[in-house]
Amino acid sequence: MDAVRPVLRARAPLRVSFAGGGTDVSPFPEREGGAVLSATISSYAYATLRPRSDGRITVESHDYGTSIGYEVGGPVVFDGHLDLPKAAISRIMAFDGAMESQGFDLFLHTNAPPGSGLGSSSAVMVAVIDLVARHCGIHLDPYEIAALAYRLERDDLGIPGGYQDQYAAAFGGFNFMEFRGEGDVVVNPLRVQADTVHELEHNMLLAYTGRTRVSDHIIEDQVTRYESGEHEAVAGLRAQRDLADAMKIALLRGRVDEVGRLLGEAWREKQRMSTRIATPLISEAVERALEVGALGGKVTGAGGGGHMIFICEFERRHIVADTLIGMGLSVSEFTFTQHGVTTWRGRR
């Protein structure tokens, strides 16, 4: 064991996206400017770093049921096995001013499966970056953490997607995020009244379809349609951006019912972006939930599966939940969190 450096732990929150998803995916933000309204919830990506003294690094993922190991300073092969943490570790340890490490064990776990539509992969990346940076004596602010996570995922590893997940995990809370492309991101924290937060928690449901989505194919289809100028895709993306702004205003004014109705509108517009976003199960779940008391509902990620959120009339929320459970979905309540990625000393 390293005699000086402590065991470190980190957690980065997962998020639900209310509106604007897709407008953070290039080339839309560079050409037209994107905007997303999202909030982090009390589900997390966790990471623990335990120093070693034998010059080895190991990474174990509970979610994937796999582990890897290699020598400090040795070649790192990106072969599809835990490439996200490998990329973060390599980049951080190569920083100017990084303290030399004699190795460590890294253990990873999240509250939601990969592909769940809650931004779990990016939350893992954010947690690992902050954790390894602190181990190496480097301080990064939330913008730096999120920007590095984005570059590693999108540029270095070539994983399709947008900007919102990395910034949500790094900052935490309710945020209205503006994207202008090429790393030009502004995160506007929203001062949502406590009563509004409590009312949202009281009226919302999180439902898991039981199927992880293959977001890269959906995102690629969306981008292709936008770049070809397809009317439905272009109109859907522009409407998403406008709805994020409208929902922000409703949220700040405490109009929870209006937020619910706008959530439903965001779902209708989102489906215009790609024909692959909705599935028969998702479409039926939204339709039946609306019939029994939901004000609005939508998928929380790229679509095709993962999680969905619903805002309901509270007196009928239990009926909505029973209806979704009857369809085979897993339903849970949740709370919001105001804190982004957090790293602390653990016990050996």
UniProtKB/TrEMBL annotation:
Keyword terms of this UniProt record: ATP-binding, Kinase, Nucleotide-binding, Transferase
GO terms, molecular function: ATP binding; fucokinase activity
A Pfam family the protein falls into: GHMP_kinases_N
InterPro entries: GHMP_Kinase-Related, GHMP_kinase_C_dom, GHMP_kinase_C_sf, GHMP_kinase_N_dom, HddA/FKP, Heptose_7-P_kinase, Ribosomal_Su5_D2-typ_SF
Example GO biological process: GDP-L-fucose salvage
Sequence ranges assigned to domain GHMP kinase N-terminal in this UniProt record: 86-173
Gene3D superfamilies xref list: 3.30.230.120
Top-rank taxon: Bacteria
Domain GHMP kinase C-terminal: 248-318
UniProt record similarity statement: Belongs to the GHMP kinase family.
Name of the featured protein: GHMP kinase
Organism lineage: Bacteria, Bacillati, Actinomycetota, Actinomycetes, Micrococcales
